DNA sequence: GAAAATTGTGGGTGAAAGTGGGGAATGTGA
DNA sequence: TCACATTCCCCACTTTCACCCACAATTTTC
């Protein structure tokens, strides 16, 4: 598995190309075939999953009963926003415009490692997001990280 | 298996021809013989199954009990609306008018990947469909994706 | 500390992708 | 049989994108 971490500020050029930080690139397994799957992230950002990680989700999706209305809605929502992009010779990906628009990205991007995927944020947006609850970081941390048995 | 995904807006020309997006074309296996089977989708859209995927459904249909009234109705509806179309030299398919009419398509189409098939939507119609329950997307997601054992 | 390799960024170009139209072959109904 | 519509097979145009090269800056290596 991948285990992405870190935060880098990179630039998206006029062609929509984005360089993947070398450190994160190294966390990409050979099974990913140099390919990421872009999708809409939770909150206002773009999520990029290595292809091999994405496959796990896909297998779950394939099991859903498409005759069920809720399942159809879920699938359409997720899949309509999913797209494969491959690294070019310079280890860059082409980020389609609709994803940049969704996250409000233009020129500069903050790339954040998120364990099994990476996220693309508009720099200011990410700043604001972090500061919004920074005061209570320790509190939030203790909450989400508490063990079921109370350790 | 195929695993179609993504959302593209393409155009149907005056002759009813529709280009298949290159990325989706690449997901087409050789067994499909460059052929899709068009049929009525669930909700107001046209579904296009690669021939090989369609065969799997056919096997399921063959198992249905034709002495059962509901099964007969289902079969007749599905089969009456099914038709094979082959890619032409430009990798396009010809979508018969009745399908376009059914989905209200005229000029522009949104093509959505749905794992084992692709769907054709009238752009506004798809927009409305997605937004109609957008507020509860996370809710739907947690519902349909929850594990049998409650994890 | 200098040389070499890697990394981040930018641009040019030819191939591929998306779109549209003409005309021959085929089929349909008056 | 003829007019008309439909469908298939070419050809053509525009836009997009994948690939190549380039270069400065940084990091690594000896």
Describe this entry's structure for a reader.
2 copies of one chain form a homodimer. Chain A is of the alpha+beta class and 151 residues long. Helices cover 36% and strands 25% of the residues of chain A. Chain A is built from 6 helices and 8 strands; from the N terminus they run E-E-H-E-E-H-H-E-E-H-E-E-H-H. The first copy, chain A, has helices at residues 22-26, 51-63, 69-80, 97-103, 123-132, 137-144, and strands at 7-11, 17-19, 35-40, 46-50, 83-86, 92-94, 108-114, 117-121. In chain A, the strands form 2 sheets. In chain A, strands 1-7-8-4-3-5 form a 6-stranded antiparallel β-sheet. A two-stranded antiparallel sheet of chain A has the order 2-6. In chain A, a hairpin with a 5-residue loop joins strand 3 (35-40) and strand 4 (46-50). The longest helix of chain A has 13 residues, at 51-63. The first copy, chain A, is globular, with a radius of gyration of 17 Å. Chain A starts with 6 loop residues before the first strand and ends in a 7-residue tail after the last helix. The mean pLDDT of chain A is 90. Chains A and B meet through helix 2 and helix 3 of A and strand 7, helix 5 and helix 6 of B. The first copy, chain A, binds a DNA duplex (30 and 30 nucleotides) through residues 10-11, 13-15, 17, 19, 21-22, 86, 88-92, 94.
